Amino acid sequence: MSSTYLALFKISLKDKIAYFKDYMFSAVGRTLTYVLMIFVWNIIYFGGHFTTIKNFNLLQIDAYFVIGSALFLLINSNNDYIVSNDMKMGNVAKSLIKPLSYVYSVFIESFSENILLLPSVLIVIFFTLYYTGLVTTLFSIITVIIIIIIAYLIINILQFMIGSFAIYTSSAFGISILFFNIIEILGGAIMPLTFFPSYVNNIVMLMPFQLFTYVPASILIGSIPSSTYIYYIFFGLFWLFIIAFVGYIFWNHVKKKISSVGG
Amino acid sequence: MDNNNMDNNTIITVDKVLKKYTVNESNSKKGFLNGLRRKKVTKIAVRNVSLSIKKGSIIALLGKNGSGKSTLIKMMTGIIYPDKGHITVDGLSPYNDRKKLATRVGVVLGAHGQLYWNLPAIDTFNFMKSMYKIPEVEFNKRLKSYLKLLSLNDVYKKPVRTMSLGEQMKCNFVASMLHNPKIVFLDEPTIGVDLPSKSALKEAIINARDNSGTTFLLTTHIVEDIEIADNVIVIDKGRKKFDGTKKELEKIFGDKRIVEVYSSKIKQINFKSYGRILLEKNDMIRLEVKPSMLKNKKFLTMLNGKYISDYRVSEPHLSYILSKLYKSFENNK
After folding, report:
1. Cα separations in angstroms, B298 against A57, B12, B277, B286, B304
2. How confident is the model at residue B5, as a pLDDT?
3. B45 to chain A: which residues are within 8 Å by CB?
4. Which residues contact residue B5 at a Cβ distance below 8 angstroms, ignoring those fewer than 6 apart?
5. Going from the N-terminus, what domains does chain B have, and what CATH number goes with each?
6. How many other C-beta atoms lie within 10 A of the C-beta of residue B133?
7. Cα A21 vs. chain centroid, distance in angstroms?
8. Total tally of structural domains belonging to chain A
9. Angle at the Cα of A64 (from A61 to A70), degrees rounded to 5?
């Protein structure tokens, strides 16, 4: 990162800290759905007298939702909102008058917001693992770190693309909500992906969304065998390459449109 | 215009530039469904505009809303590209060399400030220092000088959101000047700014031009802003209508004199025969007359007659000239 982008990161971080309390309230608000999921699954396990469902016992399912929601919160960026708002308000011009890349500027802005959540997410994960007694290995932790970085990049590129739709549609709010719900369901934030019927599961397992919640949370609670870790890393890299390529082509198209109509 | 023919003293050349854009317009036909339908309409924002700007000059780019001023500035800064024609700014093509050009120019785009809303302006200034790699000593010197000149010493450490519009505008100006740019584009720099702040901004512009040879191109609707300009460019419906000095503008469009006549018997004198009545009050009438009328015996006798208590002759104000100019555009539709 050049000193210019480092300076941009520092000022963005300062800017985010200025309204961090507000951001924390919204983050807590977003996790309430997952807390509700824990209650629902507790009722299902107790009500149906299940000890395990699809290789998940109750302790694992509770840990899955706490860890999964924390990780999902950490990687979920605001790129779609930032870009869509910039397009709508003509703020892209504000960025283009600086000797900076607009794409990097947006990524750094949203990264500065996500990084603020990192300490609380780490505390939640370690506390959950400690409390539940679920054993995780150093190999699992390193794999999860790599997968989270890949997932973060994928979700950022996708959300950047979604925000860019505002240049065609005036607002990307609708498509942004749709995308959020899709990644929430297909990423495993509502329930582990193995709970889907097998034909749905087979399709979902080919998509990159599983890297957002299901894969990292399952690795940490030990419900995915360590022999598949490397596969998931390469699977993520493959999708990252595809999405970055599509994103690059799409952004070049949007850039032409911005340069044509103004930003 | 061939770049080779460019005068060494020329810093910006705009050569036969054309810019079109497409907008969705609602259907004017009656009926609910017709109202929902939209048709794509191609509009021309800038039509074959050519101009050249000399180093160290202050240029006022005038025009009504939607005349194409901001589009022209956006093309000169590389934010958008022209559909036809060429632009050269300090020897660079703005669109192709956007990042390189950004280090040599400063831009204030009206409401779209560069300041971080939640942070004090000093944080943005420090960010500018890192982004433009301004040496510490130079940065401190320039900052100190601008803070003093624009009376910002009590302001720059408080969050931008708590600043008045004028203070924000002045801080935006400082942010765009800290790297000592060769050219500064100011799009509506005094919008919503109070009188003392306007004067301070103008003084800062003149100082930068005199001390550092900075070239300024400012778009404005506000007539007082033109006072500091060396040259005026008037744009209407994307076409350049005038490019010259203020004196030339006054000569072409303001070749009239304004005569204010004070009398208790206004109604009894036929002022219409001398010129156009601009304003009529109980004991005062304002006339627009040809300069030759001031030598007309009958007119002079009337002015010095017993019914007239006082009179005053003046040249038309720039605002009057501009409103006349814009009116002439309307009539030439």
Report:
1. 110, 52, 17, 18, 10
2. 47
3. none
4. none
5. 55-84+91-251 (3.40.50.300), 255-315 (3.30.70.1150)
6. 13
7. 21
8. 1
9. 145
Buried/exposed B165-200: b ≥16 CB within 10 Å, e otherwise: ebbbbbbbbbbbbbbbbbbbbbbbbbeebeeebbeb
Q: pLDDT at residue A140 above 80?
A: yes
Instruction: Evaluate if residue B333 carries a pLDDT over 80.
Output: no
CB contact (8 A) between residue B79 and residue A259: yes
Backbone angles phi, psi at A72, to 5 degrees: -65, -40
Residues of A in contact with B112 (CB under 8 A): 90-91, 93-94
DSSP conformation letters of chain A = --HHHHHHHHHHHHHHHHTHHHHHHHHHHHHHHHHHHHHHHHHHHHHTT-SEETTEEHHHHHHHHHHHHHHHHHH--SHHHHHHHHHHHTTHHHHHTSSS-HHHHHHHHHHHHHHHHHHHHHHHHHHHHHHHT----HHHHHHHHHHHHHHHHHHHHHHHHHHHTHHHHS--HHHHHHHHHHHHHHTTSSS-GGGS-HHHHHHHTTSGGGGTTHHHHHHHHT-S-GGGHHHHHHHHHHHHHHHHHHHHHHHHHHHHHHHHH--
Residues of chain A with C-beta less than 8 angstroms from the C-beta of B44: none
* Contact between chains at B99 and A100 (C-beta distance less than 8 A): yes
Q: What is the ipTM for the molecules in this complex?
A: 0.81
Are A17 and A9 within 8 A, CB to CB? no
* Of the candidate ranges A143-152, B3-12, B126-135, B220-229, the one whose mean pLDDT is the lowest: B3-12
Residue B32 pLDDT grade (very low, low, confident, very high; cuts 50, 70, 90): low
A96-132 b/e (C-beta count within 10 Å ≥ 16 → b): bbbbbebbbbbbbbbbbbbebbeeebeebbeebbeee
Q: What is the pLDDT of residue B4?
A: 45
Quick check: A14 and B112 CB within 8 A?
A: no
Nearest to A97 among B95, B109, B130 (CB): B109
Which is more confident, A221 or A36? A221
Answer yes or no: are the C-beta atoms of B117 and B160 closer than 8 Å.
Answer: yes
pLDDT tens for B46-56 read 999 999 999 99
CA distance A145 to chain B (A): 31
Q: How far apart are CA B19 and CA B25, in angstroms?
A: 19
pLDDT higher than 90, residue A168: no
Rounded mean pLDDT of A27-48?
A: 80
Instruction: Provide the sign of the torsion angle of the four alpha carbons B159, B163, B167, B168, taken in this order.
Output: positive
For residue B300, the Cα-to-chain-centroid distance in whole angstroms is 39
pLDDT at B316 over 80: no
